[in-house]
Structure formats: C-alpha cells, structure tokens
C-alpha cells in the first residue's frame, strides 16, 4: 500500500491518562474481530506527556475510513473533541507527526482530511477539532 491521504480521527472517549490505545486495540480485535487496531498511529496523554503510539504498519491497509482504507493512513487523537478542545500539546505533536509523515511518504498537506470528509454522518475528529487550522499548521511548518 502506498498511502495517498492522511485521515484524522478522534477516539470519542475521554483520555484516561494511561494507555487507552491498548483498550482501543482490544475493542477492535476482540469485539469487532479485526486483526489489529484500525489506525496506524495514535496520540494520547500517557502520564504527564503526550506520546505517539504505533498501530498498523504504514504499508498495511488500515480499518478506519470505509472506501479509502487502501489509500490512507489513519491517525487517532485519543479524546472526545465533540465536548472538549484538543489540548495544545496534543495538537502540536499531531502537527509534528503529520508533517513528518507528509515529508517521508510525499503526501501533500492538502491531502490531510478529517474522517468527516469521507463519512459525513460522523463528526470525527470532533466538532472542536478545526481541520482547516490543523492543515494550515502543517502547511506553515513545511
């Protein structure tokens, strides 16, 4: 798989400040029966700092955006951004991660989308996640 897009998600759950990533992986594998977590990367608060956590390999098809899984990397910000804004440290780490992936894989900044773009019935990555500002931050940093 050669990704053409990066798709931004939120977990729609409160970040527990522990490794919620494992709970998401367990839900995807044990409840949904998938072979792994659906996303390629996660960003969450672990203890007192945000970390980038690895999911599927970058050349492996994800399970995060129906119809474009074979063309995209999925990045999940752990949190519910329908009810709270994205914390600045998490946002900044997300910008850094996506900018890096765009450079390494040669994906232009304008091919970064919110999940809502591909699934209009969802608010993902949340009503309080400004994808336009996020893309501007990626573009401004490149």
């Amino acid at each position: 798989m050669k990704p053409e897009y990066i798709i931004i998600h939120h977990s729609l759950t409160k970040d527990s400040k522990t490794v919620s990533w494992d709970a998401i992986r367990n839900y995807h594998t044990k409840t949904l029966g998938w072979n792994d977590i659906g996303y390629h990367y996660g960003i969450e608060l672990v203890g007192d700092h945000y970390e980038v956590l690895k999911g599927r390999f970058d050349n492996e098809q994800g399970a995060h955006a129906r119809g474009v899984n074979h063309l995209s990397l999925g990045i999940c910000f752990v949190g519910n951004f329908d009810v709270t804004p994205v914390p600045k440290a998490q946002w900044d780490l997300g910008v850094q991660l996506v900018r890096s992936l765009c450079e390494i894989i040669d994906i232009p900044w304008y091919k970064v989308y919110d999940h809502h773009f591909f699934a209009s019935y969802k608010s993902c990555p949340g009503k309080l996640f400004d994808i336009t500002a996020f893309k501007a931050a990626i573009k401004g940093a490149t």
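The first strand starts at residue 5 and ends at 10. The radius of gyration is 14 Å.
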